[in-house]
Amino acid sequence: MKYLHSALPESAAEEVAELIDRALLETQLYLDEKLTLTRLASRVDIKAHTVSQVINQHMGTNFYRLVNRYRVQHAVGLIEDPTCHLSLERIAIESGFSNRVTFNKAFKEEQGCTARDYRAQRRSA
């Protein structure tokens, strides 16, 4: 186990998880395509190792999946917005993805279908 000798209590892990979520959501930090674990850790003023540990152990994911989850949620919001007429490529960029391949992979992982299929389902509904 990677964090076998960690002394981080569960209550502290919950607090750090809340700080991480708040930093990502309130400032939409996930929209920065160059976001790194180090930068997130700096934003919440906690060591990167601790942030990584909380994301892995307490939040049950890894840094990139966590960030991509927020990005996909953002993309879904844009796709579902009837006033938004952006291409899927543009939606990917606006959601913090640096390329369409990563966007498509993350979208399918989170939503169970491609962004194109998701958009088509929404339009036909």
Describe this structure in words.
The protein is mostly helical. 66% of the residues lie in helices and 0% in strands. It is built from seven helices and no strands. It has helices at 10-26, 37-44, 48-58, 63-80, 88-94, 100-111, 115-124. Helix 1 (10-26) crosses helix 3 (48-58), helix 2 packs across helix 3 and helix 4 (63-80) crosses helix 5. The radius of gyration is 16 Å and the shape is elongated. The chain starts with 9 loop residues before the first helix and ends with a helix. The model has no long low-confidence stretch (mean pLDDT 92).
Q: Overall pLDDT, averaged? A: 92
Computed over alpha carbons, the radius of gyration is 16 Å
Assembly annotation: single chain
Order of SSEs: HHHHHHH
Question: How would you sum up this structure in a few lines?
Answer:
66% of the residues lie in helices and 0% in strands. It has helices at 10-26, 37-44, 48-58, 63-80, 88-94, 100-111, 115-124. The radius of gyration is 16 Å and the shape is elongated.
Please describe the structure with a list of short key phrases separated by commas or semicolons.
single chain, about 120 residues, mainly alpha, 7 helices, about 65% helix, about 0% strand, elongated
